[in-house]
Amino acid sequence: MKEGDTGETGAMRVVFVEVVKEELDRNPNLAVVTADISASAFDKARAQYPDRVVNVGIREQTMIGVAGGLALAGLRPVVHSYAPFLVERPFEQIKLDLGHQEVGAVLVSIGGSYDDPVWGRTHQAPGDVALIDSLPGWTVHVPGHWAEVEPLLRKALADDNRVYMRLSTRSNAESVSTSAGFAAVRQGKDGVVIAVGPVLDQVLAAVSTLDVTVLYASTIRPFDHFGLLTAARAASPNIVLVEPYLRGTSAHEVSNALVSMPHRLLSLGVERDTEPHAYGTPEDHDRIHGLHAEGIAQAVGTFLA
């Protein structure tokens, strides 16, 4: 995509497909595995590289198993689907065929927690990062803008580790640096607010009248312990964690970062005790979970008060 484009629906996935197609031509060790979803985007590449671009049909466990086999054979597999079909359904295969075998792969999801609520609960996965986080050795990227996808993805493709990249159809208005660790997008003295991926715009709107530091992360694993500790020392040990997935997923990382400093923590995200049964829009689900600007503002204001 060209500089100046906006983060329209599907832009992150467009960048993902374009980059992977380019790398397939450049890197003979790169492979792609799909389970019907987005398989048509790789039709031409599949015809050109039938041994390295594989569509297994609607068999998500097989998709991860094939990726594990390709990795054991020395290839670098890229696996793509909706988050629940990529992480939740084949979780045992992720644990065993990749992690326990100690081989690498790049898992790239789309759909976020509830980007497409019209499809119902089957296409929603707010617990995906928490599941990946239960396994050792994973890097987790949560880009908040299409321009952040390419540098994170190219680095992942060039490595041999295990990477989970969580793409979304939702986007911040502008991209932020994807360098390792937190990027400080605002400085203040009354607390530190961590915004992960595509929630940054809502966070900035919510704290516009508050004197707080805002840290942004497009890479949440490994967690930037030193960056948070430095920001908390410069501001105040009142920490607000805003994640676009299960509330409190990174709470233990905040505690580890600030183990030497008494602190207070407010975790915001998709609620654990709420199970919406209405489809609605992503914005409707934001309101249900308090992840819209007004909900974040109320929660943060009460916490700091």
From TrEMBL:
The UniProt record lists the keyword Transferase: yes
Transferase among keywords: yes
SUPFAM superfamilies the UniProt entry points to: Thiamin diphosphate-binding fold (THDP-binding) (SSF52518), TK C-terminal domain-like (SSF52922)
Domain Transketolase-like pyrimidine-binding: 10-175
Single GO MF descriptor: transketolase activity
Enzyme class, first EC level, given as a word: transferase
UniProt KW keywords: Transferase
TM stretches of this protein: none
Entries under InterPro entries matching the protein: PDH/Transketolase, THDP-binding, Transketo_C/PFOR_II, Transketolase-like_Pyr-bd, Transketolase_C
Record-listed E.C. numbers: 2.2.1.1
CDD domains per record: TPP_PYR_DXS_TK_like
PANTHER family linked to this entry: PYRUVATE DEHYDROGENASE E1 COMPONENT, TRANSKETOLASE-LIKE PYRIMIDINE-BINDING DOMAIN-CONTAINING PROTEIN
Protein name, entry field: Transketolase
